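Example for tutorial group B:
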C-alpha cells in the first residue's frame, strides 16, 4: 500500500505529522524501559513489565509524531532496542520454569504488536516501497529469539507427556519461530509483488 493510500485510510491526520526522527524522548525511553524491567524483575512486579511494553511504544510514536526528518535506520534501531529489552525479560522469566507465569504470558504478543505497529508506521512514511525489508528485519529478530528460547527452554527438558501447548505456555521457542516464518513469508510475498509490478511496467516499454 502506497503512502497516498495510507493517508486515505487514516484520514491524513497522522501521517502528515509523523517524521522518522529519533527524538530525545525516544532515546530517553531506552534507559527508562531498562530501569522499569530491572525493578519488575527484582521485585517480581511482572504486571509493570507487561504494561510497560505498549506504553513504551505508544510514547515513542507520540514523540516521533512531532519530529521531522531523521534517519529511518536510527528510528528502527531504537524500536529494536525496546523490543529486545522486553523480549529478554520474557526469556529470563521463562528460564525460571515457573508453573504459573501470570501476566508475563501476555508480554510476547504485546511486544510483537508494539514493534510491528510502530515499525509499520515509520516505514510507511519513510520507505513505503520497502516494507519487505522491514519484515525481513523483524523476521530475523524473531528467528534469533526462537534460537535463544530453544537453548533456554530445551524441548528435551520438558516431561515426556508435555506437548507443544505446554511448551508455548512455558515460554518456549514455538511462538517466536512461528512469527519468524510468518513475517518472512509475508516479506517474500511483498518483495515478489514489487518485482512483478516492476516487470509489468517494463514489459510494454521493452515491446516497443
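The residue assignment follows.
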Amino acid at each position: 500500500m502506497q503512502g497516498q493510500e495510507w493517508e486515505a485510510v487514516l484520514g491524513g491526520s497522522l501521517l502528515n505529522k509523523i517524521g522518522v526522527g529519533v527524538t530525545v524522548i525516544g532515546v530517553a525511553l531506552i534507559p527508562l524501559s531498562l530501569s522499569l524491567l530491572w525493578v519488575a524483575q527484582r521485585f517480581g512486579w511482572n504486571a509493570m513489565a507487561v504494561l510497560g511494553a505498549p506504553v513504551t511504544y505508544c510514547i515513542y510514536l507520540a514523540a516521533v509524531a512531532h519530529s521531522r526528518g531523521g534517519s529511518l535506520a536510527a528510528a528502527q534501531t531504537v524500536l529494536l532496542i525496546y523490543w529486545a529489552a522486553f523480549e529478554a525479560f520474557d526469556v529470563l522469566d521463562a528460564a525460571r520454569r515457573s508453573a504459573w507465569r501470570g501476566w508475563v504470558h501476555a508480554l510476547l504478543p504485546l511486544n510483537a504488536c508494539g514493534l510491528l505497529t510502530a515499525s509499520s508506521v515509520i516505514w510507511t512514511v519513510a520507505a513505503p516501497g520497502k516494507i519487505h525489508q522491514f519484515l525481513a528485519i523483524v523476521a530475523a529478530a524473531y528467528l534469533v529469539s526462537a534460537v535463544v528460547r530453544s537453548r533456554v527452554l530445551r524441548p528435551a527438558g520438558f516431561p515426556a507427556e508435555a506437548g507443544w501447548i505446554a511448551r508455548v505456555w512455558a515460554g518456549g521457542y514455538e511462538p517466536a519461530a512461528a512469527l519468524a516464518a510468518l513475517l518472512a513469508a509475508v516479506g517474500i510475498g511483498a518483495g515478489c509483488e514489487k518485482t512483478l509490478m516492476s516487470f509489468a511496467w517494463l514489459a510494454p516499454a521493452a515491446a516497443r
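Residues 3-207 form one domain. Compare this with the pattern of hydrophobic and polar residues in the output above.
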